[in-house]
Amino acid sequence: LYPVFSVLNLFSSLGCMTQGGFDLAYLTAFDPLWSNDELSFLLHPEIALVANPVAQASCAADAVASSGGFGINELFWCAGSWGSVYPLTGNNGATGDLPAVYALSAVKLLAKLHNELLAFKTTGEGSLCAARPHRVIVKNQYKLQLAFPKNTRAFPIGRVTARWAAGKWYPGQGEDWVLVLWRKKDCCLL
Hints:
Structural class: alpha+beta
Strand order of the largest sheet: 4-3-5
Shape: globular
Number of strands: 5
Strand content: 5-15%
Number of domains: 1
Order of helices and strands: HHHHHHEEEEE
Distance between the termini: 18 Å
């Protein structure tokens, strides 16, 4: 259900609703780690394991998988055809393909929230009746959807931009994008 329902406390008696609050206050502008790769490395030292040519070459498999379905969860450092999730900062290093840059920024933030145990695993084993903190992003529980400037169908993390962004970017009003994040949740009704 939309987070708006959580904010308004609607449908709170359903067994599928996540317990806990909904935080609208997280802004990357106030996060010192979001714009500093070196400082982020101190909190996320696993970057040393995935920031090498061999690990990055494995992202090709994730790109192929996300082209037809969901990305590979075990390759948590990859965002399919969009690039590398690490470092967990707003610095993408990507140019040219603006839809991929915007989507990669959203995935990097989501991965950062998972790494800091602020986002939860809501699908699969151990998450049926309650969301569990999970340190790495679970790519197959999320989809993104372009809501502005032109809406699209929801697409998995890493999907080739030609399949969801072709003809959506144009100068002027079409330069600002709004992406909606959808999260799958396995639930049980008690």
